[in-house]
Amino acid sequence: MSEKRKDNRGRVLHNGEIQRKDGRYQFKYIDANGKEKFVYSWRLDHNDATPQ
Question: pTM for this one?
Answer without folding.
Answer: 0.78
